[in-house]
Amino acid sequence: MSNRTDTYALAYECCDTVLREDGRFPTIDAIRDRIGVNSPTVISRAIKDWTLHFANKHKETFERPDMPAVMLDTAVSLWQLALKEASKQFDEQRQQLEENARNDQALIVQLQQQLVDQQTQWDTERSQLSQHNEELRHTNAELATALAEARQSLSHTNAELASTREALSRAEGSLSTSKAALQAQESAWSHRFDQQHDWHLARIEEEKNAARQEHARTITALGRELEDFRLELATAQARITQLMQQLSDRHEHQLKWEADLATLRAQLAAREVELQAEKDKCRRLHELVRKQRRPAQNTPDKAAG
User: What ranges does the record give for the region Disordered, renumbered to this chain (predicted)?
Assistant: First the structure.
């Protein structure tokens, strides 16, 4: 199938070449010699299609013999180009319109969803308002009942207020009498308080004087005790100074004794060294004496033998 298609394309293109070079319509032999393929059926079909295309192409030339063929070809090319551009613009506009339609459809769906949501919200709010109105009606009924009860209670309260006012008037009379008695009692208590206050002030002054005298005596006694303590302190300080002097003297004597003791110890050590040397000399002398005695003892023994 691919070979036949290639043969058809070669034969179709070769038709223009034969017409341009030979100045005559193409034939099977001319095409076969040029493309080098022996396929009369395919070449014949290509020639027929090319002839039909050539006839359609130059049909308007035959109808308009006064217009050159070149201009017709140019016009056809321009028309085809215009058709392509128009088709391209139409496709672009159609795509834009389709895109706008899709966007509008999406917007419509969104608006419908918003409308549904808003309708749902309105239904909810309507239900809430209905419930709230029902609650308000119930509250109004309760308030009306409470108002009636309050009016009845107000009537009882007014009656009680009238009786209370009468009792208050009687109580005010009693209060005036009690107030007069209280003022008289307050005057008596004030006079008694002034007398007791004066007595207490005199008593406080006497106690203050006695306390001052006792304080003065206490200060005098403490002064004497302080003076005695100072004398004892001076005596103790003098005694401490004397003891410190004695301690210093004894410390000096002790240092002197320690120095003398160290000297004596050094002398004793030297004497011990000398004594040890004398002992060593004595030991050597004893050994020498023993050595000298041994030959003398051996000689008598030999003579006796």
Answer: 286-305
